[in-house]
Write a structure and sequence with these properties.
Helix content: 25-40%
Shape: globular
Strand order of the largest sheet: 1-5-6-10-9-8-7
Length: 546
């Protein structure tokens, strides 16, 4: 069999180009800026115990941020309609709470990941969005240190000369708190021609909101086991999609999250409504394709940023990839390999409906049907959280075929949610000390497993063989030798389905979709998919790396 890295690695589809999603690329660029300042990456679960998501952040039961209109709550399986004490995190801050509970200051932490709020999608809102949050805990930290960090961060992301401004704002767990604004790069707050009306970018304000920041409240530090009399702490957070929109003049977040592969393949090729765009300034994706911005921004030079921690040493002497977790480093490398092989990254929402399992031909007792259920879903049609990446990825495949994108080949790296029983134990807010280890252990045990998976979906001749090649590419990146053996497993077609193994551990499946499934989903015959458990694969290949 052809090497995974020779020629069209991973079975690249004919006449196709690959790309990582711009949200992924920008999130990595933003993270790398902070890694070069000495920060280290932390990660946490997307389905989280309310204590980590709210109580530890000084948000009591009556806080508006934990109301059903502001947070997705999970149903208690033993009490239909009742809340389980678990939520989809509304920000990435719980990962920092977990880090403070397990580490000793000084700390410089950055978390980049998805957050969730029950906001229907419109031009500027999405129920699923990405954040980059930073946290610093050290002796004598003040708002001055925070402002200097934000100035450097903004200049690295938007270009030299970018000006930031803080405006007082009340936030959940920081005090004092502020919103972070960027000076409008178009008008700089000055309109030479008053008759032309207000600036179309900032509305005449001269400033554009970017994120939030503040000094962490002593009560939060105490709860996390940090002495507030000795250490100061500041935190800040910005939205990745918002950064992408501001940096490249995009007006509608639905263009970013919609799943049309023309967006990641090149913004110059994706013009909503057929409206022409001015000559843009290029920026570089991780696949070395120039993706122009939507408009030229005067006097704004975007500083080239590292791609995935490669080839740059920061002011703290960070080696290539330093500060990343092993999981993040491997996921970056897999994304690069698949994009180079002609696959387009297509992140999908985690919400699913029961009709997907029927289309897959799953038996009533198939464990993939045992999903976590939301008490307040965006739509009653999709009340559950995915146990596999395939429903969303296949929906995106169908969308792209409908849009006339011929022979699309998609991939997604994301978490799936294992079922659990019972509710999370109640743990009242402790304002004067760190909770006992036994109580934290009980909370952690109630949080369901959320392994990271990789899935691909594609059409075309011999697509099922290329799906297997893509799995081999991922395994090769992680240092594993993948073996296959025939099996039968829905929704794959008998005789065209292979188990993917390392040793005797079954990590996933690849092959051609069952005829009944492609008919139910309106997909062409020969559609093929692959899904593999990256978390288990990483554990099997972990030789003590961190």
């Amino acid at each position: 069999m052809r090497s995974a890295f020779s020629g069209r690695a991973g079975g690249a589809p004919h006449d196709s180009r690959g790309a990582r999603h711009p949200v992924t690329v920008v999130a990595e660029q933003m993270t790398d800026v902070l890694l070069d300042l000495g920060y280290r990456v932390v990660e946490g679960p997307e389905v989280e115990a309310e204590w980590f998501a709210f109580d530890a952040l000084d948000m009591d039961d009556d806080h508006p941020g934990r109301a059903p209109g502001r947070a997705f709550h999970l149903e208690d399986p033993s009490e239909p309609g009742g809340r389980s004490g678990l939520v989809l995190r509304t920000r990435t801050s719980p990962a920092q709470v977990r880090a403070m509970l397990g580490r000793t200051p000084p700390l410089r932490l950055v978390c980049a990941g998805r957050a969730f709020r029950p906001d229907p999608a419109d031009t500027i809102h999405s129920p699923v969005f990405n954040q980059v949050e930073g946290l610093a805990v050290d002796l004598g930290l003040t708002m001055v240190d925070l402002k200097k960090t934000l100035d450097h961060f903004a200049a690295a992301v938007f270009g030299r000369g970018t000006v930031t401004r803080l405006r007082t704002h009340r936030a959940a767990y920081t005090d004092p708190s502020a919103k972070v604004y960027l000076e409008c790069a178009v008008c700089h707050g000055v309109r030479e021609d008053v008759s032309a009306g207000p600036c179309g970018t900032c509305g005449g304000e001269g400033w554009i909101e970017w994120g939030w920041c503040g000094t962490v409240r002593p009560r939060v530090l105490t709860t996390c086991g940090v002495d507030p009399h000795r250490y100061g702490a500041f935190a800040f957070g910005v939205g990745v999609e918002r950064t992408l929109m501001l940096r490249h003049g995009l007006k509608d977040i639905r263009d970013i999250i919609g799943g049309d592969i023309r967006f990641p393949l090149g913004m110059e090729e994706f013009v909503p409504g057929g409206r022409p765009r001015p000559a843009p300034r290029p920026w570089t994706t991780a696949t070395s394709r120039a993706v122009p911005a939507a408009r030229a921004v005067p006097d704004l030079e975007i500083i080239p940023l590292t791609r995935g921690g490669h080839g740059r040493r920061g002011p703290w002497g960070r080696e290539a990839g330093g500060g990343l977790t092993r999981s993040q480093s491997l996921r970056r490398r897999i994304g690069h390999a698949l994009a180079g092989a002609g696959y387009v990254e297509t992140p999908r929402f985690p919400f699913v409906c029961d009709a997907a399992w029927d289309a897959f031909g799953l038996a009533p007792d198939d464990p993939r049907r045992a999903t976590l259920t939301l008490t307040n879903p965006i739509t009653p049609r999709e009340p559950s959280l995915r146990t596999t990446l395939l429903p969303g990825l296949l929906a995106a495949l169908g969308l792209n075929l409908t849009l006339g994108n011929h022979h699309p080949a998609l991939f997604e790296q994301g978490v799936v949610f294992a079922p659990r029983t019972g509710a999370a134990p109640a743990l009242p807010l402790l304002a004067d000390r760190r909770p006992a280890a036994s109580r934290l252990d009980a909370l952690n045990a109630a949080v369901p497993a959320q392994p990271s998976h990789l899935a691909i979906a594609l059409t075309g001749e011999s697509s099922w063989a290329r799906a297997v090649d893509a799995a081999r590419t991922a395994a090769h990146v992680m240092g594993a030798g993948l073996i296959t053996r025939p099996t039968e497993y829905p929704p794959w077609l008998p005789g065209r389905c292979l188990e993917l193994l390392v040793g005797e551990a079954v990590l996933g499946h690849a092959g051609e979709l069952h005829t009944a499934t492609v008919q139910a989903l309106g997909l062409p015959p020969g559609t093929s998919v692959m899904e593999i458990d990256l978390t288990t694969l990483e554990h099997l290949t972990d030789h003590g790396s961190t």
